[in-house]
Amino acid sequence: MYDYSDIIVEEPLEPSPLCQILYSDEFRQLIGIAKALMRNNEHSERALEITERVIEKVAAHYTIWSYRLSIVKGLENYSLAKELEWCGQIALHNPKNYQIWHYRSLIIELILKRNGDFDLKQEYPILEQMLDQDSKNYHRKCWKKT
Prior knowledge:
Blueprint: H1 25-39, H2 45-57, H3 62-74, H4 80-93, H5 98-115, H6 124-133, H7 139-143
């Protein structure tokens, strides 16, 4: 776990007069740190870690996924294969989350851009798991090998 004691978390000016969302103090702190890092345009391992922690709480947070992608692109020696593996684990716990699948496709595009090669067949196991989890998905029958 990284140190975030240098980060100044700004509180919102006023709560919404219509509907106050009751976030936990932990989530408020996490998102506050993430917003401060975004404002500072920080692309570091600790920024990557805070995005992971926010995504664990709210996997559909589009802005955090976007920030995470910019961090991954900015870290020169960061393993894209490791990122794809991490993303797969998040996807297994959130199978119907558009942000995860979009992010995953962007990481694969980045791998192709950097390496020029990516075996799409390695995506089959995770796709099969996702389809198996979704009993309403009509593609499931097409996917199964006969």
